Amino acid sequence: MMNENIISNLLMRDAPKLLFHYTSGTGVKGIIETGKIWTTKIHYLNDKSELELAFEYIRDEINHQINNGITNPPVENLRCMLGALDSISKFNVSVASFTTQGDQLSQWRGYSEIGNGYSLGFDG
């Protein structure tokens, strides 16, 4: 039930027309030369708490399901999911960051060199 609700809500949303990736001049050069956007290990991000915050939301939702007597999926499966969250941080999780905002000061500051940054727009 929990996964079905999350997936249903996501599928009902319209995809954004553009997604932007902020990067430096060196980053743009690499993207053009390789045709790829490289990911970064999540532990190296400016805000290392992002992954833990996501896990906290997931834990809260699973606990909500357990405490409200949800039987699909079975409680044993939900408890197994909780246990898996504790060990998942040991895995090599990598991300690439995108936003729907093409001109956002915080993104310029965080992801581009002063005076040498780019906001690349990709079809959503």
Short key terms for the protein model shown above:
two-stranded antiparallel sheet, elongated, alpha+beta, 2 domains, 124 residues
Task: Give a description of the structure.
With 124 residues, the chain is α+β, with helices and mostly antiparallel strands. The protein has 2 domains: 19-38 and 96-124, no CATH class; 46-93, no CATH class. The chain contains 5 helices and 4 strands, in the order H-E-H-E-H-H-E-H-E. It has helices at residues 2-12, 25-34, 49-67, 75-88, 105-111, and strands at 18-24, 40-41, 94-95, 117-123. Strands 1-4 form a two-stranded antiparallel sheet. Helix 3 packs antiparallel against helix 4. The longest helix has 19 residues, at 49-67. The radius of gyration is 18 Å and the shape is elongated. The two termini are 28 Å apart. The mean pLDDT is 81.
- Give start-end ranges of low-pLDDT stretches: none
What percentage of residues falls in helices of 4 or more residues? Answer: 40-55%
**Helix segment count?**
5
* N-to-C order of helices and strands: HEHEHHEHE
Quaternary state reads single chain
Count of all domains? 2
Spatial strand order of the main sheet: 1-4
* Strand content bin: 5-15%
CA-atom Rg in angstroms: 18 Å
Apparent shape? elongated
- Mean of all residue-level pLDDT scores: 81
Structural class: alpha+beta
Largest sheet: 2 strands, antiparallel
Calculate the terminal CA-CA distance, rounded to whole Å: 28 Å
- Please report the total strand number as a whole number: 4
